[in-house]
Amino acid sequence: MKYMKYNVNEKGYYGEFGGAWIPEMMYANIDELRHRYLEIIESPEFKKEFDQLLKDYVGRPSPLYFAGRLSEHYGTKVYLKREDLNHTGSHKLNNTVGQILLAEKLGKTRIIAETGAGQHGVATATVCALKGIKCVVYMGDLDVQRQAPNVKKMKMLGAKVIPVHSGNKTLKDATNEAMRDWINNPEDTHYIIGSVVGPHPFPDMVARFQSVISKEMKSQLLEKTGSEFPTRILACVGGGSNAAGAFYHYLDDEQVELIGVEAAGKGVETKETAATLLVGSPGVLHASRTMLMQNRDGQITEPYSISAGLDYPGIGPLHAHLFKTGRAKYMATTDEEVLKAALLLTQKEGIIPALESAHALAALEKIKMKPDDVNVINLSGSGNKDMETYLNYFGY
Amino acid sequence: MKKNRINRLFETKKENIFSVYFTAGFPNLDDTVKIIQELEKNGVDLIEIGIPFSDPTADGPTIQHSSEIALKNGMSLHLLFEQLKNIRESVKIPLILMGYFNPVMQFGLEQFCKKCSETGIDGIILPDLPLEEFEAHYKKNFAKNNLHNILLITPQTPEARIRQIDKASNGFIYMVSSAATTGAGKKVEDFQQDYFERIQQMNLKNPRLIGFGISDHDTFANACKYAGGAIIGSAFVKALQSGNELQNSIRDFTKKITGNTKTTAKS
Ligand SMILES: Cc1ncc(COP(=O)(O)O)c(C=O)c1O
Questions:
Q1: Which atom from ligand 1 is nearest to the alpha carbon of A83?
Q2: What are the record keywords, sorted (chain A) (predicted)?
Q3: What is the whole-number distance in angstroms between the Cα of residue A242 and the centre of ligand 1?
């Protein structure tokens, strides 16, 4: 089998990370998923439906764009994988399309989701509208305020948005609340997790749905550069789903450098950061053994980032494993560096990136690149949802 | 090895076992020992001491709130063991620590089990430590320290898994009353009697206690019809919030729960 070295094993582990640390109340649902997900998503019928929707509904393949003026600026070759051009404006829809088809096959009639930036919430509300399925989205109250346009979109799409008031009122707390909902509704509900986090089989399932990103990248690079293999791939990492998708088909191609970029917030040396791998330690959160931001008593500490989508104190177990084994490198960029990088892309290429995606762009400032290097940035989302932050900061 | 107090309890008392959960460090940091002593004095048979966690995903609003306050008050596992150091000088009933896995993992599981044993803890409930992980990695440490790992079942647990859990248990089985997070305020009609009856008829080797949503005399008495007894958490945590003297609120609460039941005399 391919990707054995970095793939999940039959117990749901990537090396020492992963598993399904679920309370017994979630056992029946997780057990059903674990036993059925591969059989369902690998079936020819499912694949056909999924591919068709990716093409006609999501608008795939997403372009691989050679960013000429940005390349010139950095003295190297920069390509952008344009996930921002997907319907709903981010990579999140790849996963929700896959999971809604799965939920249908499982006979579920109610969908729940957590969301940070609101992108996953919108992507979930969208596929629920598409299929006429009831949708409830949990969102931290702070995020409800800083991502107001997405809240309105979800409502217009027919979803019920429930603000979460516990903890830091962000993504972690929304995830807690979604898990509680699932415990309270074990029969009719499927939980569409928004990233490669949570109990097995979610990390593997979401990575498979997002892997279309690197699958397309291979053929697009071959066509544009004569080789499937770039020098390096950069992607921002919150939970890690867009990065998992961008890395997936390159995991065994060790000549390709994989770089995940976390949110440094105000700096990894400060308390106001979300750079989980760089400042965290192993622990168990949201039913997964992974790297976490926590104090010495094992209480989860509150992350901080300017971008709501990266504001998470954990990370998908695949990334914890890639970090530990050294297969991928992880770095972090600060709020300030990110805002600058977003403005640079906007004015060099006429593309306004999501704050999350701009973390990967900002990493270009910190990497030594040769003129002939082929650098692929996974541009995970569009900046539409972040206009208020940008306008406030730049004072337009 | 001395007999575990949980087993002794179930040998001598077959019905109406009155079990209470509270969150350590709530309402005040130093209430822990006093609450335990008062509960025992008022006829409670078994106590679950909650280790607060920042992300209690299996808990409803009441225990979320008590955990948040307890953490703000400064509660930690280190401090809890410090508070409980001499608890066996005054308290005889079985004591169980209940919490989430991560704080225990950071404390160090081996060290945790050792500390429990030294302190006179009889059992552990870690809802997010699944049976498979427990059996593969932690069972030996529990056994070495004469600690029972208490496992949960729910209305959705398949029969084969219930049998497996029964086999792996050696104190009692925690029967989650319904598909729900913890929380008070349920009525007798809200519970699935057929689930209670189904489990009762399975002839499991372990006794059961029913918990989650048991909040008053009626729900307690009803649960006791189907199991060795019942566990009350959120309703007790709420009672502690009343602002009255601990002594009074605990006395009033226990009276309210057992008031009209014919509790067998404590042996
Ligand atoms: C545009 C965009 N990129 C990235 C992320 C982070 O998620 P992940 O790390 O799972 O890709 C989000 C999350 O909301 C997002 O909206």
A1: 1
A2: Amino-acid biosynthesis, Aromatic amino acid biosynthesis, Lyase, Pyridoxal phosphate, Tryptophan biosynthesis
A3: 6
Shortest distance between the Cα of B56 and any Cα of chain A, in A, equals: 8
Global pTM? 0.96
Give the closest residue (by CA) to ligand 1 atom 10. Answer: A241
CA distances from B127 to A81, A90, B57, B94, B96 (A): 42, 36, 10, 19, 13
Selection from B72, B31, B73, B68 nearest residue B49 by Cα: B31
| Residue A338 · residue A364 · CB < 8 Å | no
pLDDT bracket for residue B184 (50, 70, 90): low
- Report the percentage of chain A scoring pLDDT > 90: 95
| Separation CA B128–CA B131 (nearest Å) | 9
Q: Whose CA is nearest to atom 16 of ligand 1?
A: A119
Active site residues of A: 92, 114, 380
Distance A356 CA to ligand 1 centre (A): 6
Q: Domains of chain B: which residue ranges?
A: 5-253
Tens-place pLDDT, residues A84-135? 999 999 999 999 999 999 999 999 999 999 999 899 999 999 999 999 999 9
Which whole number is the average pLDDT over A187-198? 97
Q: What is the mean pLDDT of residues B100-126?
A: 98
Asked if residue A203 has a cis previous peptide bond (ω within 30° of 0), the answer is: no
B103–A298 CB contact, under 8 Å: yes
Question: Of A383, A310, A378, A380, whose CA–CA distance to A353 is shortest?
Answer: A383
Average pLDDT of chain A to the nearest whole number: 96
Active-site residue identified among B38, B45, B59, B122: B59
CATH topology of domain B5-253: TIM Barrel (3.20.20)
pLDDT value for A4:
63
